[in-house]
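At this stage, I wrote out one protein, both as residues and as discrete backbone shape codes, and that material follows here.
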Amino acid sequence: MDIDAWVWWLIAAVGLGIPLVLTAMPEFGMFAVGAVAGAVTAALGGGIVLQVVVFVVVSVALIAVVRPIAARHRSQQPQVASGVEALKGRQAEVLERVDARGGRIKLAGEVWSARALDSTQSFEAGQQVDVVEIDGATAIVM
């Protein structure tokens, strides 16, 4: 029983897909797409040299184009802040006097411990303050 070349290319594509899933390295996926392109070339009657050339060109092109785009997206900061990052820059209401030693504020519907950014400043109950930083469970305000 003689297996056609395109079947071997599909077997190679599946073989390259396995490490993609196990290692989460997208380069294996790009090689798998190149192997599928080689299978298509073989199914259309292209010779072995053309099949290998198509595999290499498609794989290298995908790595050259897709990889830098993916790296750029991976390095960008999320557009929507979440967690404590979402609290920075918000306003809060002082519940108990806040100075350099401490105090209490109401921030996003919750009571937080707080301290003044500037050690010479203090804020009285009822005043509005801006949250500039979150240090553990303490909001730094000004």
Summary: The CA atoms of residues 38 and 45 lie 11 Å apart. The mean pLDDT is 90.
